[in-house]
Amino acid sequence: MDGDQGQQTALLKKRFVVTEALLQVPYDPIAYLERASVHANLGYPDLAAGDAYRALLLTDEINNEGFEYHEQALEALRSRCKGGVPVILLSQNPGHLESSGGVERTAESVDEDRHLFEVNRTTSIHCYQRLAASLLLCGCLKSAHDFCSRGLAASPDNTELLTTQEHIHVVARKRLRGDDVDMNDLPDQGLVRREIYPWNEHEPNRFSHETIDFLNAELVKVAPKCEVKIAELPTLIEGLTSTESHDMATNKQLGLFAKEDVDPGETLLDEYSILTVNNRLKESLCDACSTELPNLGPGSSVVGCPDCEDTMFCDKECLARAESYHPAVCDKDVDTIAKDPDPKETPNALYLLLLARALAMAQTQQCHPLELQEIKYIWGDFVQGTPSTVSLSPLAPSPPIWTLPFSFASNIAGPLHILEKMDVDIFDSLAENDLWIFNTLYGKFRGTASARVNKRDGRVEVAAVHPLWCLANHSCDPNVRWEWGGQMRFWCREKRIDEALGGIQKGEEVLSHYCDIELSVKERREWAQGSLGGWCMCDRCIKESGEGSE
Ligand SMILES: C[S@@+](CC[C@H](N)C(=O)[O-])C[C@H]1O[C@@H](n2cnc3c(N)ncnc32)[C@H](O)[C@@H]1O
C-alpha cells in the first residue's frame, strides 16, 4: 500500500467511526464538524459542506430553547465538553475560547451554561468557515459568499473567513471575466464528483446474474419480447471523432435486446412509472402520472385523495398506485416546493422534485432510497475510482473531471427542507438521508430521466425515470419510436432512416434515440452529447460526418 492509499484507508476508517457515532448520537454538532473535516480531507468538499450545514442547524437548535431538538443537541454538546473543549474547535480558535494544553478548563471552574454558549458560538463560526471554503471549492460562489458574510458578521476579524472571502472574489472575477463583480450575480451552480462512494453498499453489480434476472423478470411484465443483456458500447469522449481514434475504446454496459422477431409497428414496451413529477402549481395534472387530467363533471374518472384537498388523480388506478408515495406527503404542505420555477431553474427544479418523489416513496415504503427497485438498478454515469488527491507522479492518470451538477439549494438545503415538511427527523435518519445518498440519486436521475413539454406553451413541465425503458441505448438510426403519455411506449419503426422496411430480429439490440433524428449530424451530436457523454459514434453519424471513409 503506498502512502496516499494508506492515508485514504485511514480517512475512510475515521469516516466510518464518526458516522457510527452520529448514528448513536444524531444531534451532536461536534461529530458533524469532525465528519466535515474527514470528508474535506478525502476530497469531497460537497459532503463537507453538507455536514457543516447540519452542524450549523444544530448550533441554532442549542441557541433556541423553543426549537424541536434543543434538548437533545444541548445534551450532546454538554457531553462532548465533559473533557474540555473538543479538539476540532482548537485547531483554529475563532471564538475566544481559552485552552490549556489542548484540554479546556472544565465546567466546574466556570458557569457551565456560559461555557456551553461560548463553545456553541465557536462551533457555529467553524461551521461558517467550513461551509464557505467547501462551497467555494464546489463552485457555488454565491452560497459560499453568503456563509462567509454570516460568519464575518459574528466574528469580523476571523482570518480564515477573510482569506476565503478574498478567494471568492478572485474566483468570481475569473468566472465572470471582469473586475466589477456584483455579489448578487455570483454563480451558484458547481460540479462535484459523480461516483459510487467507497462506503455505498447499496449499488448492485449491474452485470451479475442476480441483477439481470431481476430486470428480466420485470421486463416480462411490460415488454415480453425484450430482454436485458450486457452490451459493449464505444467509450465516447467530447469532440473525439473516429478519424482521430481508429482504435475506439469500448466499455461494458447494459442494453435491451429482442427475444423474438418484432414486426414493424408492433408495440414492444409499455411502462408506467410512479417516479414521475411535474412543476406546475395550478395545472390540472395527475399527481401520480402527470398526465393532463380528464375533464371533470358527471361520469369523470378523476378522483381526489380522500385525506387531503387538491391532490387529484386520473382515476382509481393512479390513486391506488399513489399509495407507494403519497402517504408520506399527504396533507404535508409540500405542494409549493420547486413548482413554477424561473425558466433558468427548470431542470434543477425537476430533478429536485424527482428526488422528493423518491424520498416520499422510501419513507412510505420504509425502504432505503437507494434500495427502491425503481432506482437501484438504473444507470448513473458514475466515474469509478476517483482519486481524492491529485498525484504528482508523472505516470499518474489525469484526475477525472467532476461531472455532477451541484448547488447548495438543490443538494443540501432543498432535500432537508422537503424531509422536514414530511415530518422526518433529518438528524435521526442519517442512514437514509445523508448527502451522499442525495448525490447518488441525482447521478442516477441525470443519467436516465426524460422531460416533457407542455404542448400549449412549450414549457418543460414533466420529468420521469422509466427504469426499464431507460435501459435502451441510443442510435441515430433507431429501430423503435417512443411516445410518452401516461405510460412510456416503444414500438417498432415501420421504416428505417434509409426508408428500408423496419422490424427487429431476434437477438438484435433495441435502439432508441436520445435526440431528434431528423437533424444534421452536427446538430444531433450536439443535442445527444449531454446524455451520451460525448460525440455520437453510431454508424450513421460516422457515415454522415465522412469519418472513417479513408
Ligand atoms: C440511459 S443509459 C442507457 C442504458 C445503459 N447502457 C445502462 O447500462 O443502463 C445512457 C448511457 O448509455 C450509454 N450509451 C447509450 N447509447 C450509446 C451509444 N450509442 N454509444 C455509446 N454509449 C451509449 C452512455 O454511456 C449513456 O450515458
UniProtKB/TrEMBL annotation:
Pfam families: SET
Single GO cellular component term: nucleus
Tree of life domain: Eukaryota
Keywords of the record: Metal-binding, Zinc, Zinc-finger
Ranges where the SET domain occurs: 224-515
Gene Ontology MF terms: zinc ion binding
Xref: PANTHER family: HISTONE-LYSINE N-METHYLTRANSFERASE SMYD (PTHR12197), MYND-TYPE ZINC FINGER PROTEIN SAMB (PTHR12197:SF273)
Name used for this protein in its record: SET domain-containing protein
Organism: Oidiodendron maius (strain Zn)
